[in-house]
Design goal:
The complex is a heterodimer of chains A (333) and B (558). Chain A is of the alpha/beta class and 333 residues long. Chain A has a single domain, classed as 3-Layer(aba) Sandwich (Rossmann fold), CATH 3.40.50.970. Chain A contains eleven helices and nine strands. An eight-stranded mixed β-sheet of chain A has the order 3-1-4-5-7-6-8-9, with helices on both faces. In chain A, helix 3 runs parallel beside helix 5. Chain A starts with 50 loop residues before the first helix and ends in a 6-residue tail after the last helix. Helix content of chain B is 28%, strand content 17%. Chain B is built from 18 helices and 20 strands. In chain B, the strands form six sheets. A five-stranded parallel β-sheet of chain B has the order 5-4-3-6-17, with helices on one face. In chain B, helix 3 packs across helix 6. Classes of the chains: A alpha/beta (333), B alpha/beta (558). At the A-B interface, helix 1, strand 2 and helix 9 of A face strand 1, helix 17 and helix 18 of B. Strand 2 of chain A pairs parallel with strand 1 of chain B.
Chain lengths: 333, 558
Amino acid sequence: MAVAYRQVKFYQTGSFAVGGRLLDTPERTVQSGMTRTNALTLGHRACQGCGEALGARYVLDAAMHATGNKVIAANATGCLEVFTTPYPETSWQVPWLHSVFGNAAAVGSGIAAALRAKGRTDIRVVAQAGDGGTVDIGIGCLSGMFERNDDVLFVCYDNEAYMNTGVQRSGSTPPAARTATTEAVGDEPGNPWGQGKDMPRIAMAHEIPYVATATVAELHDLEYKVEKAMEYRGARYIHILVPCPLGWGSEPADTIRLARLAKETGIFPVFEAEKGEVIAASKIRSKVPVEDYLSLQRRYAHLFKPARRDDVIGAIQDSADRNIRRFGLLGEV
Amino acid sequence: MMERPFAITLEVGSSRANKTGSWRTQRPVYVDRLPPCNDACPAGENIQGWLYRAEEGDYEGAWRVLMEDNPMPAVMGRVCYHNCETACNRANLDEAVGINAVERFLGDRALTSGWRVGVDRPGRAGRVLVIGAGPSGLSAAYHLRRRGHAVTIYEASTASGGMMRFGIPAYRLPRNVLDGEIQRIVDMGVEIEFGHKVRDLMIEMEGGGYDAVYLATGAEIARNAYIPAGDSARILDALSLLRSAEGMTYPQLGRSVVVYGGGNTAMDAARTAKRLGASEAIVVYRRTRDRMPAHDLEVEEALEEGIKMRWLSTIKKADAEKLLLEKMELDATGFPQPTGEFEELEADCVVLAVGEEADLSLLQNVPGLDMSGGIVHVDSTMMTSYPGLFAGGDISQAERTVTAAIGNGKKAARHIDLWLKSGGMQAGLPGDPSDKGYHQAPSGERHRIAGWGDLNTWYYSDAPATVRLKLDMVRRQSTFDEVVLGLDENNALFEARRCLSCGNCFECDNCYGVCPDNAVVKLGPGMRYEFDYDYCKGCGICASECPCGAIEMVLEET
């Protein structure tokens, strides 16, 4: 499978960093530009080192860039809504609507229908939610939006639990992770092992035009996917891993590092799919064991002390290795 | 009615009213750190600075930065032992940046393009006498000339270059390159009087009307080793061998040549002997390879050319066509001790390469000089205890390399300039602990060195070093053509771009991009960034994701 976007090598930092004077302007990210939208502006109340605040700005700035600044955003209840819009302030510098927790996809569909009625094909719709608003509470509306193939890009910012209300588990919480509702007690501490909800693959099963995953650690890849998504008409889905220092018990400064490790361990496969078929996967650049990722997060602290749980760490490694096989994540970068 | 964004109907306040900077317990600050290459350079070059220009393809700009410190980049790109590359952090990632190769590319490009530098401060200034037109004297002359001083060099021989001409063989340093770089210095208005050997410095200083003197006569008396020798044994010293290879008449060496010694001169002598027709050249050295003072690269190249090595051996006796060697062993302190075991070795000729000494006889009438250990001692301003007499290069120090000599010349020129401006008063540069001259904090203190641990190397793309091609072996063993070939523009650019810019911002936009709070302000090309502390929450992502370690987190005062 091909590399998702054209990587630039050998130019000092190549296309790994945000910008760089040695890259031609089109090869730099939207974020590197002095005129980026800053869809999410100064003064928002996200925690220090919030991955979701970063991810939302990345996505909406890229969508604004791709559409000539014609985007309307619908936003489910959740951290992203709470920390940006305490009345009477807003951090949004794009047209933005707050929906209830479960219906961001339906609100997005409605906006798209209204725009179609008005003949405004130039204005595009982005609906966004956290993992709770996507995989649990919002999955009905979202599945409907997919099934009708409404012209909406739905973005899930996945921080793997209900962080805003106090870190309760969601359908996206990984096995063994400690949350307020899955305490690290008993023989199988933390979130129980189950099937979970692999939302990107659920979206793919709807055979919608475009599905992709990304992390806040690889900006070039993320922006490429958002801009590509805006080239399609119909339902599109992007699932973005956004580390949460509060819920994961990690250092605020490690947010991007953790996102990078999630990809490099194979825990979070980064790929894109068209009409239900995977068309490209980002290769692992230097493979590391899952322990490197787990040990930086206090939600996994019980795997290392008081007694080391090699069985659990091994099982997590097995699931990462399964991702590596399933998506072909090893090989020439 | 206020202009509102598209589709916004209600008037709302902006979250900008919420100054989240008050949450902060630590703040990021931009820092500049001393790159390890710059720190290691004996000539005090701003290596990272000129690589930065070269990365953009601005070769002339790069060369001009280089020329601020070193007037002979094409020579340096050939003969320097590149401590910079040894220090380079990239070696931990894949291989060190080929700094030396890029320097040579820039130096050669300058020669073919005819780039020149002018006098920075024209007008009336001092008159300075430089004694010796070797690397140190030429460097001092150049730097003094740029500062507007009139410079005359007295050179005892008939050609300039010193050890660069008479000690370094042409296969390492082609003479057209050397001549070109010297001519560029002469063209700035430096006068060289050839054949002017200074026998008594006091007489020259009193009679010449000079305001200051820089003594850079080098060390070119070959040291002797006592070897009992039969009448017909042929023994000569390495320096005269190398010197005669410069002329038209080559010495008769015979078929088998033994070189005695383990330094760079020994390697040069053996390789030169091979080129002059010896079918066998053998280096005899009393210790082991790892204790050899010769640079590893030179040993490697000598071995490639078929030079043989006899470790742990001394020459006890020399006769016609044969030598008696005694085997040695290293004692606990690493010093070689005789074993009493002997063996014979065929040799038509023995070349002694056991070191060089400085000729200090011209200083006999200068009062109060400290010349202990066979060198002229100077203070931190390169001045001897005699006011106005400065000294540098091989005559004043143990590190006898072209690079160190050029660095001495630069440093001496700066201090001579200050000394003259202060009317001959003792004047050191304030806060000048090591004279590296680059990235000095305003306080005059040196910046902390950017170490491997300061970097986030994830961001550097994988790019192994460019290999410099070498001349084919037959021509290496029989001609004085240059052995190591240069880079072309494409691979020089590639090589320059391998620089990690350790410790100094190179505007990759990472901090600007990764801040979740938009609290980094991009100021525009060449202007870097600044933090908006009204909103920075102090999360530290910018510092941990800065590839080159140019951001530091410091605690807020409570």
